[in-house]
Amino acid sequence: MITASIGPALSLSGLRKSFGHNEVLRGIDLSARDGDVISMIGASGSGKSTLLRCIPMLEIPDAGTIAVGEDSLSPKGGRLTRTEDAIARRMRGHLGFVFQNFNLWPHRTVLENVIEAPLFVQGRSRAEAVDEALALLEKVGLAEKRDAWPAHLSGGQQQRVAIARALAQHPRAILFDEPTSALDPELVGEVLKVIRRLAEEGRTMLIVTHEMGFAREVSSRVVFLHQGRIEEDGTPAEVFGAPKSERARAFLASHFDRNR
Amino acid sequence: MDLTFISGMFQKILTGLPLTLNLWLLSLAGGACLALTLNLMRQNRIGNAIAATYVFVFRGTPLLIQIFMIYYGLAGFGFIRQSFLWPFLRDPYWCGLLALILNDAAYSSEILRGGLRAVPKGAVEAGRVSGMGRATILRRITLPIATRQALPAYSNEVISMLKATALVSTITLMDMTGIARAAISETWRAVEILLCAAVIYLVISMLVTRASAWLEQRLSPWQFGRTTP
Amino acid sequence: MGDIGLLGFGPDGWGLVLFRAGLMTLAVSVAAFLCGLVLGTLVAWARVGGNRVMRALAEAYTVVLRGVPDILVIYLFYFGGRQVVAAIGTALGFAGPFDISGFVAGMLAIGLISGASQSEVLRGAYQAVPRGTIEAGRVVGMGRFTLFRRVIAPQAMVTALPAMGNQWQSVIKESALVSVTGLVETMRQVSVAAGTTQEHFLFYAAGAVIYLIITTLSDQVFRLAERRSLRGHQGAGY
Ligand SMILES: Nc1ncnc2c1ncn2[C@@H]1O[C@H](COP(=O)(O)OP(=O)(O)OP(=O)(O)O)[C@@H](O)[C@H]1O
Ligand SMILES: [Mg+2]
Description:
The structure holds three protein chains of three kinds. Chain A is about 40% helix and about 25% strand.
């Protein structure tokens, strides 16, 4: 299922992004090999979402290079040229993105949400797309909901559909932006369970999360972001067990106090 | 009540039905195209200013004055009388149709704009991250959601336009209202004649209301609690 | 292109005449809007609180007025009004000819049209009043009237105001149709001027500008009112 090839699945270098005078990302270098599960933690406003959104060019970085598989882009001046836009679309085709608020298409059923991009972006055949989508829905435990409308699902179910939709991209890497933050506490578990399964399968994932226990358990690496810079980067044991920077220590202390 | 008079009058007024329907449907079609164009124009600043001014002028003035302006006003310009447009612009039918299209576009474009604003930003982003281009996003996500959102308001506009076609009778066109008006000056039995005409318009507009309620349910099942498409 | 001087206020200009016509548009619009407000309130009340017959009548009224062209309604009032007046006049033994004023016919016709949509707005606004606040009024012992005046109306007005602004705008534009009765308001006056001077474009454009001025100014007024009503709302401690 995973097409291993030479070079990292995903790599960012020198990434910078400002909103007006607010410098949100101040030079980010990060790369993920196939099979890496990287959790990104950090205080609110530290730039985690912005970093994640830069990868598929939902936000266009001011400087730096983003590479997904064989494609890479170094946009200048906060906008994409026409050729860059074509490359960006190809890169998106190799990524899956799971939003905090699910962002399912309200006018399409569960199944239609999953087959939309395969049909209308990748031009696969309907029969093939449907077969695969049903398998994916089975995997996230929602096969029986194939004809339901998103509005009729619980948050946890919607997020699992969104994960199936991301998987239908055949992504080289999947990006999660706080996938459980919009959920009621009792629904968090079902989504984490699905993500854990994906980790076990050896999927490449970059996960922004506040679920420290989960991050510690599934990640191969944890990065701590502070004011637009990566302050810690190591195995879960290193980052959670013996954080090098004062700020990471303070963040973790307050977080474990508050949440556990 | 004079039943023979009334049934004769119904038949007479109904001869204007084709023209009424013609103006109504063509002005809706033309207005919809122009409304979509106006909304697409709004993506840059100059286009936005033009579209906003257009809407301001056409929604801020009565349709009647727009009709007269086109039918009587444009004829005052020598260059228009010399141009290839003149054969059209001297004809009350084309003038009436043009005025209706321009007027409908202003209202419809605002309705569509409201619908577009109601499209969740996340739905568009989800389209972008799955690799869709602008055109695909417009066709598969934005427009379907926007039009369904705008349907109730638009069905009111459709009925408004049916009623608006009656105004072309003021520039000599013999639509249903034009025929009724002529019959009044012949017979002076205004009340019966006007009620006949009113009934026909009413029936059509009630059919539209029914149809749009049905369409709304069909197109937006996710808002009506049905789980199968 | 015509002589702009024609629009001046001097002895040869149409300025003063057009100004008066603009005031007439305003007058007939205000009268019609108020008619519509009274009617709309009654009808909304019938639909919300009336018995079955009243509800059915009120609903039929809104359906009919929604589906019939405004100009037919105006003709109906104008010609029909004449017929009625003539019938009464003849019955009372007066000699003709009989006529009714375009102002009255226009005011009633447009009031009737506007009343239908105003009733929808008011009904919607009433339904948007949180049930809890009404119950809160009940439990402190307010009667129906006090409840309406102190609790329902103030809240409903805030919701209704923007939509009522739109109703007013429609009334202004519909008032142009009253010109078919011969009432000398803006539309009628610019047609006369255009015919007399043969400067059609100039005068219809001038007419359009008059309407734009009226609609824009009243839009500002409604916005101001909206802001004030909202301020009061917050001030009341919500
Ligand atoms: N579109 C935008 N326009 C302007 N400022 C923005 C925009 N998006 C994010 N920001 C700002 O960038 C900074 C970083 O935001 P970001 O959403 O990346 O933080 P985050 O780490 O994801 O926080 P959280 O944990 O709350 O989600 C914040 O100060 C935010 O206000
Ligand atoms: Mg975030």
